[in-house]
Amino acid sequence: MSINGTKNDENKTPPHIIDGLDDFNKKIGDKVVNCLTGMRPSGRLHLGHYKGALENWIAMQNNPNIKNNFLIADYQVLGDHLGDTKRLRDSVIDMVIDWLAVGLDPKKSNFIVQSYVPEFAELFNLLTMFAPYSVATNNPTLKDEIKKVEGRKDGSNNSISLGFINYPVSQVADIMLPRGEIVPVGEDQVPHIELARKIIKKVNTMYETSFPLPKALISETPRLVGTDGNDKMSKSLGNTIYLTASLDEIKKGVNSMYTDPNKTSISSPGNIENHVVFKYLDIFYQDKEHLEDLKKRYIAGGENSVGDGEIKKLLIEVLEKLIAPIREKREYYKQNMDLVIESIEKGSQNMREEGQKLLEELKEKMGITKYGREF
Amino acid sequence: MSINGTKNDENKTPPHIIDGLDDFNKKIGDKVVNCLTGMRPSGRLHLGHYKGALENWIAMQNNPNIKNNFLIADYQVLGDHLGDTKRLRDSVIDMVIDWLAVGLDPKKSNFIVQSYVPEFAELFNLLTMFAPYSVATNNPTLKDEIKKVEGRKDGSNNSISLGFINYPVSQVADIMLPRGEIVPVGEDQVPHIELARKIIKKVNTMYETSFPLPKALISETPRLVGTDGNDKMSKSLGNTIYLTASLDEIKKGVNSMYTDPNKTSISSPGNIENHVVFKYLDIFYQDKEHLEDLKKRYIAGGENSVGDGEIKKLLIEVLEKLIAPIREKREYYKQNMDLVIESIEKGSQNMREEGQKLLEELKEKMGITKYGREF
């Protein structure tokens, strides 16, 4: 992904933005850095999550220069789905099982539950003193999200909570507590990283600390459309294929995909512009030569053309090949819940210990500790 | 103090407002209740603090039906004096020494340092999810305080921090963590108690908890004017008499008091309307009969009149009698810092243990704990 089209022009890329893992290796790859990333617990994950995040996370996990912290941001769900306890509990566990199933490894990376680590709240509380109120009132991302929540039709939360307003600063605490140096984000999230840099810099300047200023790691992640062709793949739109779908579910998903309604027979010429099956093959099918050949024949029509049936069958095979082992591992972890529980409890405990060290350091510098004692 | 002049009409006093300690004994005095009150660490205390709060606190401490929690609200100072570490550290210790010197007893009451108890931050963080954003935007007290901070001339903080905006909800956490049932406040602070009730009620309703809804305890506290007659006694106005003033400082304070400039000799008639010395005697001098006689003679003038010199001398004696033992105890604690340190460390530790129990209870009800386990 390029920032303002400057991918190949290093001079124009702001120094706090790293353009993909290759750029990371070039710029930072000679030391071990802490990485913080995470997800809202959204339940079972789908192919969009895989392509948009998990595949990258696995690459980061395989990079010996990155110490990964994967956050399960359950507080963020409370902020706008308060009261829906069952949904939250199921969402957390379903998501963690999927993390394990795709190969994220709690021995190599910390799986951290936000609410298990009160140190996040304590650091957040301190950082609110450094953050100007205008963070809430002027933040464009927040303004958009406020509009979304207020417009939500299901009545789950018609009014904005104070917690929702605090969310950008809460994210700064999420990054700072593990001394995060890189944060993989989408381009639209760069302002959050810039806010984190601004606040942490203020702390460093005011109290002579040297907490790292995070850099945004922007990786090339193709945006997967929904099975219906909608720009966004989302559970609520019913246009997802789960990362642990059964073969039947894969078939159902692929067979419902938008193709070219004007290609009425195999031999009629076709249009692939909004053709969802081809869009998926572009992303998931490795044999690019074969794919190009299929496209040409699909477009041309005639005797050697291919129909939707054939390419759908191909996509089903491709997806089944990707998903089958993940599905199997999901079943394994569902039968071994102790491993799932251990993964989040161990990672969270690690974070607590690191977090306490950071807070001790910060509070000593700020002087809000050991009143009446010299230190 | 009466609320809307309804002191003697119980039907008209809202049930969440208790009108002084007598009313407390009548309404609640048959069980032990938790009380939360506190101060911003403002350094050495003055007579205004004594009459406005401490005298009441001592009465509460002597009431076997009240379990007192006295909070040292150091986070609140960070909110608008960030960076002034030395001032904060000195302020905390000077204030605690004065608490001890007037007879507050850490064996009977918890002295709690806000920043020593991360459970406050954790609870606060949770409560922000329950609090509507409008708490910040519509709160009249907050609006006033924002104006004050923005108008401050010393440049100590020209912009409002997010922490400042969060302050009313942070106070709700301060009350809820010790399961505070009564909170001594001035009449202008009643909206804060009402906010606490609203938020805690929402928690109770949503998650079937039964955390107590706090009641405001409004006690009759005379407002002490400054030595210059200014409505407010305040360090920054230089019109205070410290609770541990030396005899010389008492003399200097009393001798600088505004009297009647038109009473040019002892025998000329006088006016006591804005007479600061008489205002102080009204509050501190027990012999009301003698005081009335002095006032009459001061006003009348003539042969039997009294002059400013005589009544100033009387006030100096009265204040010295009050202050001398406090001053002595202050010296004692300054020589025994370990007792001061122990008082805040023990009280804060007690609060941590109680707070952890409350958080465990709340998080279990909210379901944000032990994911994957049954409980």
Question: Would you kindly provide a brief summary of this structure?
Answer:
The structure is a homodimer of 375-residue chains. Chain A has 375 residues and is mostly helical.
The oligomeric state is homodimer
Number of strands of chain A: 6
What class, by secondary structure content of chain A? mainly alpha
Q: Quote the CATH topology of the largest domain in chain A.
A: Rossmann fold
CATH evolutionary superfamily of the largest domain in chain A: HUPs
SSE string of chain A: EHEHEHHEHHHHEHEHHHHH
Distance between the termini of chain A: 49 Å
Tally the helices of chain A.
14
Query: What's the helical proportion of residues of chain A?
Result: 40-55%
* Rg for CA atoms of chain A: 23 Å
Task: Identify the CATH class of the largest domain in chain A.
Answer: Alpha Beta
Q: How would you describe this structure to a colleague?
A:
Two copies of one chain form a homodimer. Chain A has 375 residues and is mainly alpha-helical. Chain A has two domains: 10-225 and 338-366, Rossmann fold (3-Layer(aba) Sandwich), CATH 3.40.50.620; 244-334, Tyrosyl-Transfer RNA Synthetase (Orthogonal Bundle). The first copy, chain A, has 14 helices and six strands. Chain A has helices at residues 20-27, 47-61, 74-81, 85-102, 118-130, 134-138, 140-151, 162-176, 190-207, 247-255, 276-284, 288-300, 308-335, 337-366, and strands at 17-19, 33-39, 66-72, 110-113, 182-184, 215-218. In chain A, the strands form two sheets. Chain A has a three-stranded parallel beta sheet with strand order 1-6-5, with helices on both faces. In chain A, strands 2-3-4 form a three-stranded parallel beta sheet. In chain A, helix 9 (190-207) links the parallel strand 5 and strand 6 (215-218). The radius of gyration of chain A is 23 Å and the shape is elongated. The N and C termini of chain A lie far apart (49 Å). Residues 1-10 of chain A have low confidence and may be disordered. Chains A and B meet through helix 3, helix 4, helix 5, helix 6 and helix 8 of A and helix 3, helix 4, helix 5, helix 6 and helix 8 of B.
